[in-house]
Design goal:
29% helix, Quinone Oxidoreductase, Chain A, domain 1, six-stranded parallel sheet, 11 helices, Rossmann fold, seven-stranded mixed sheet, 2 domains, alpha/beta, 328 residues
């Protein structure tokens, strides 16, 4: 019987059986291989770490079905379904579940020679790509990423591929910086952002970086981040805080002519969309230019989801990629 993960209330996770719909024309039934937890988003939702009246509050209603990064194989195709064959490996922006019935155009192809557990990073990589595009990083840019969690790790790798000359990663957790350095960061600074200015300048030829990307989703980081952008530089808000009312502007914005840009998963355009981003991501991973080595740190059977969400909530510093294996 097909099964899926569900949040039934605050800090309440479980697995339930369900009956997927029949496969209609233009659709496919996909059997899950693995799905990657978005630790930031899903723990915010799981623990309801957001203010009333925010878009988070409007989105999270129970029962809530978490997850949006799944790799599976096509099990059945409906009539007049083009571009798919039974057995094709695909990526879906769908919740953690053993099966999904989706429109064919929701199935993004995954190369057969790419490990599904690496391919499962496609959604977080897509989110991070929006921040890197918004940053306008170019060859020779000097950039800093605040927060070396999963989205921050993906941002570091895109920035390296884009040709950043100096690429600083700042996070108080040393292990996260090891992963960032492996992915292309030129310097790792294991300090709270409020104490890191001297080390940042030392690593960046005595200057502040022209681009800063805040991937943390921590509202308290915003004011500190503004102080760390070079005059007339750019701060990109990539982490989506659940408490935007706690983000406070400082005089740096006007006195030093800073630009603030928001970046979000939904900011697709005709030329920069999910299909194109995934093709590029997969190609970079296959050629070794986008290293995912060591990022998958934990695996759980879906029936152990209570333990998985407790681990993700309580041990954030020691977890990077948390996978649910649907094949067991």
């Amino acid at each position: 019987m097909p099964h899926r993960l569900v949040f039934t209330g605050k800090s309440q996770a479980g697995m339930e059986t369900f009956e997927p719909p029949a496969v209609a024309s233009g659709q496919a039934r996909v059997r899950a291989l693995c799905s990657l937890m978005s630790i930031g988003t899903e723990t915010i939702v799981f623990n309801r770490l957001f203010d009333p009246g925010t878009h988070w509050d409007r989105w999270v209603k129970y029962p809530f079905y978490p997850g949006y990064s799944l790799i599976g194989e096509v099990e059945e195709i409906g009539p007049q379904t083009e571009g798919l064959n039974k057995g094709d490996r695909v990526a879906l922006r769908c919740s953690h579940a053993s099966h999904h019935v989706v429109a064919a155009d929701q199935c993004l192809p995954v190369p057969r020679d790419l490990d599904p557990k690496q391919a499962a990073w496609f959604a977080l990589a897509k989110i991070a790509s929006m921040g890197v595009r918004a940053s306008e990083c170019r060859l020779g840019s000097r950039v800093m990423v605040i927060g070396a969690g999963p989205v921050g790790q993906m941002a570091v790798r895109w920035l390296r591929a884009a040709g950043a000359e100096v690429l600083l990663a700042v996070d108080p957790v040393a292990k996260r910086l090891e992963w960032a350095m492996r992915g292309g960061a030129t310097h790792g600074i294991a300090q709270p952002i409020t104490e890191a200015m001297d080390e940042i300048k030392k690593a960046n030829h005595g200057e502040l970086p022209e681009i800063v990307i805040d991937s943390t989703g921590n509202a308290a980081v915003f004011a500190a981040a503004l102080r760390l952008v070079k005059n007339r530089g750019r701060l990109v808000l990539l982490g989506d805080t659940g408490m935007p009312s706690h983000q406070c502007l400082t005089s740096d914005v006007i006195s030093r002519g800073l630009s603030i840009v928001g970046a979000h998963d939904c900011h697709e355009t005709a030329e920069w969309n999910a299909a194109r981003i995934q093709r590029l991501f997969m190609a970079l991973v296959q050629t070794g230019r986008f290293s995912l080595e060591g990022l998958n740190t934990h695996e759980f059977h879906p029936r152990d989801c209570v333990k998985a969400y407790a681990e993700a909530s309580d041990r954030r510093g020691g977890i990077m990629g948390l996978l649910f294996d649907w094949t067991k």
